[in-house]
Specification:
Blueprint lengths: L1 H37 L4 H10 L8 H17 L7 H13 L3 H17 L3 H8 L1
């Protein structure tokens, strides 16, 4: 009887934890969707949204890659220099591994913008190819 109660309690706790993590993940995705819809027309607002996002320690690679790509693009559009190419490269590497050529090309382009802005013209040229 005691083991049955313990099992039910444990399953209940696991269910609550799953709900909390999925709700948090869903909220992050909504914030990313909102930032993405604003990044071209209002990059400052997109930056404000992105800066409020708290990525969990064990973040999903897809969420991290999307966040990094959007953050780089918003910084570029808002003229928020200096641009750090490492986060764009993390996104590009992820999309390359997942064979997502469209997003990989966008992330490489953003990394090239970072390199060009920072005076690394040869690296920028490689990113644009």
């Amino acid at each position: 009887m005691r083991s049955l109660t313990l099992t039910v309690l444990l399953l209940g706790i696991m269910g609550i934890m799953t709900c909390l993590f999925s709700c948090s993940d869903s909220h992050t995705r909504i914030q990313l969707d909102t930032a993405e819809s604003l990044v071209d027309s209002d990059p400052d607002s997109a930056l404000r949204i992105l800066r409020k996002i708290e990525l969990p320690r064990r973040k999903h690679e897809s969420v991290e890659a999307r966040y990094n790509k959007l953050l780089t693009k918003a910084r570029h559009k808002a003229d928020s220099l200096p641009l750090d190419d490492s986060i764009a490269r993390v996104a590009a590497d992820y999309y390359e591994r997942k064979k997502d050529s469209r997003n990989a090309a966008k992330a490489h382009y953003l990394a090239g913008i970072c390199d060009y802005t920072n005076g690394h013209y040869a690296n920028a040229m490689v990113c644009y190819l």
